[in-house]
Design goal:
- Helix 6 runs parallel beside helix 7.
- The chain has a single domain, classed as Rossmann fold (3-Layer(aba) Sandwich), CATH 3.40.50.
- It has about 270 residues and is of the alpha/beta class.
- Helix content is about 45%, strand content about 15%.
- It is globular, with a radius of gyration of 18 Å.
Length: about 270
């Protein structure tokens, strides 16, 4: 069902890879709610994914490749997006994360620091670069909304999440810091959404993912939030209904983040004895 929450708004969606991606689902929901969008991802991801299929489903949305670690690429992205829209931008979704140490099986205590720098650059400082580019180019409209996807491992230890926990903590810090300056300058909102473990292509690559997603389901009073649920939340954050929400880390996890233990987990542990 559409409520026209984003009618007349224009936004950039970073990170849609395939139909499992939260960014993919969010792009579809934004379009359904009346938005015009531009899709972007790293050139290698564009070759691997099916983003042209998504573009067609979103009213022939432009697909503009951009390496988020490159200021030149980001400048080109914003220039072409504003040219396409005929004006400034109302919302941005940052759905980007990559860990070389996880991909290559390096334990947290033995991480390769050169790989770690790339992880932080792609997964965290890329948000700073996106916001800096928009700031320098005055590319965002007043009261625009920026959302980045994060995970509760930024606050709590999940061993197999590895260096991505550090990356998400940095991402959330960038959100608060840049959110302050952008709020003062143009009332632009910058927030993170801390999503439940979700069966995306990237998420499923984390060691022990199946076991953990089942655990999270048992630990969440409402159950795990789906990718579709997250897309709906993003739409609300992009809309004018949340104009006074900024610099927040918003947990979207069925209650997992504030639950100490559930009866289902107690019973499972009791049965295990």
């Amino acid at each position: 069902m559409s409520y026209n929450l984003l009618k007349g708004k224009k936004g950039i969606i970073f990170g849609a890879l395939d139909e499992k991606s939260i960014a993919w689902k969010t792009a579809l929901r934004c379009f359904e709610e009346g938005a015009q969008i531009v899709l972007t991802n790293a050139p290698v991801a564009l070759r691997m994914g099916e983003i042209n299929k998504l573009a067609a489903a979103c009213g022939s949305a432009p697909v503009i490749g951009a390496d988020v670690t490159s200021m030149d690429d980001l400048k080109n992205l914003f220039e072409k997006s504003m040219e396409h829209f005929g004006g400034k931008i109302d919302f941005i979704l940052h759905s980007i994360g990559m860990s070389l140490n996880v991909r290559k099986g390096k334990h947290y205590t033995e991480m390769n620091y050169e790989w770690n720098q790339k992880t932080l650059d792609i997964s965290s400082m890329s948000l700073h670069k996106v916001l800096r580019t928009a700031w320098d180019m005055d590319a965002l409209n007043e009261s625009a909304s920026v959302v980045a996807l994060t995970y509760i491992a930024a606050q709590r230890v999940f061993p197999d999440y590895n260096e991505m926990a550090d990356a998400k903590a940095l991402l959330e810090s960038v959100t608060r810091m840049f959110g302050y300056y952008y709020g003062v300058k143009k009332k632009v909102r910058v927030n993170t959404i801390s999503q439940s473990p979700t069966r995306t292509t990237a998420g499923s690559g984390v060691k022990g993912f199946d076991g953990f997603i089942n655990y999270a389901e048992k630990m969440s009073p409402l159950g795990n939030a789906s990718g579709e649920d997250c897309a709906n939340f993003c739409v609300v954050m992009f809309s004018d209904l949340t104009k006074m929400v900024t610099m927040q880390n918003l947990f979207h996890d069925g209650g997992f983040s504030f639950t100490g233990v559930t009866q289902a987990v107690i019973e499972q542990m009791t049965d295990a004895k």
